Amino acid sequence: MTKKSILVTGGAGFIGGNFVQLMVNKYPQYDIYNLDMLTYAGDLTKHSNIEENDNYHFVKADISDRNFIIALFEKKKFDFVVHFAAESHVDRSITDPEIFVRTNVLGTQVLLDAAKQVDVTKFVHVSTDEVYGELDFDPTTFFTEGTPLQPNSPYSASKASSDLLVRAYHETYGLPINITRCSNNYGPYHFPEKLIPLTISRVLSDQQVPIYGDGKNIRDWLHVLDHCEAIDLILHKGINGEVYNIGGHNEKTNLEVVKTIINTLGKSDELIEFVKDRLGHDKRYAIDPTKLEKLGWKPLYTFETGIAQTVQWYLDNKEWWEQIINGEYQNYFKQHYNRN
C-alpha cells in the first residue's frame, strides 16, 4: 500500500514544529514533509530527535515561490496539506505590513493552486482568533465560527484575507478544506519574543518584563499540544468546508500571566515594567470551541497545569532558548543538512 504523505508548512516554527513532532511519532505510516523558509523564527534544532526518522523529510522553500511549490506538489503528490506557515508577530506587522501580505496572502494562494492541481484529499488552513477583531470585557461573549471577520492589525488582516481565499477555493473549485482559528498558544519551543517565553527568560535573568498599557488585555490561552491534537482530529474527521474554533477555556489578563510566571519562579513583581500600549491593541479574545468539542476534542491542559509544565520545560531546556536568543540556532541548517 502506498504511504500517505502530509505536507506541513511552517514546520520549523512554534506550533507547526510541535505538530510535526506529533505526526512523525504518532503516524509512522505517513510520510511527513516539513516545508519551511527558515526565516528568523524558523528553528530546526527542535527536530534533532526526529530528523533521522524514515518518515520525516525537510524541504527549505518559500511558499510564495510559485514555480518551486508547483513542481514540488507535482513530484510528491501530497495527500494532505496542513498550512501553518505565516508571518505572525503583530508588532512586526505594524512596522512592516508588506511581508505579511506576501507570505500570508500570496503564499497561501500559491499553496491553494498547487493543492488544487494535484487534487489533495484535505487542505487544513491554520488561522487565528485575531481575524474576528476584539471582544469587550463582558465574560458572556465569545467568538464563534459565525462571528464576522473584523481584523484590527496588518497581521490579522493578512490572515483574514488568506482565510477568505481558502474558503473561495472550496466554494469555487471544490477544494476540500478546513479552516481552524485558535486562541493564543503557549508551551515548548515557543520563540522567545512572545509574551510567555519572553517573561520566563527575562525573569530567570532578573531583567524587566515589559507589559503593554495597563496589562488588562485578556487572551484565551491554549496549550500547543492541545492545539496540535485538535488539528490532527480535524485533518482526519473534520467536515469538508467547515471552520473550527480551537480555544482553551483559559482567559487571563496579560498581567495575570506575567505574575503567575514570576510567582512560579519565586521572583518579585517589581520586575514588571508597564510600557506604551501597542497600536490597535485588541481588548479581549475568547473562543467558544463547542463545535470542535462535538467532533470529539477537549483540551487536556488547564492554564495552571499548562503554565507549570511550560515553565519547567524552559528550566529543563535552557540550552535551547539561549541559542535562540544568541542566534546560534541559525547555523543548524548548514551544519546538519550540508547545504549552502
From TrEMBL:
GO molecular function: dTDP-glucose 4,6-dehydratase activity
Catalysed reactions, semicolon-separated: dTDP-alpha-D-glucose = dTDP-4-dehydro-6-deoxy-alpha-D-glucose + H2O
InterPro entries for the chain: dTDP_Gluc_deHydtase, NAD(P)-bd_dom, NAD(P)-bd_dom_sf
Main enzyme class: lyase
Family per record: Belongs to the NAD(P)-dependent epimerase/dehydratase family. dTDP-glucose dehydratase subfamily.
Lineage: Bacteria, Bacillati, Bacillota, Bacilli, Bacillales
Keywords assigned: Lyase, NAD
Organism: Metabacillus bambusae
EC number, as in UniProt: 4.2.1.46
Record-given protein name: dTDP-glucose 4,6-dehydratase
Alphabetized NCBIfam families for the sequence: dTDP_gluc_dehyt
Cofactor: NAD(+)
Domain NAD(P)-binding: 7-310
Gene3D superfamilies found in the cross-reference section: NAD(P)-binding Rossmann-like Domain (3.40.50.720), UDP-galactose 4-epimerase, domain 1 (3.90.25.10)
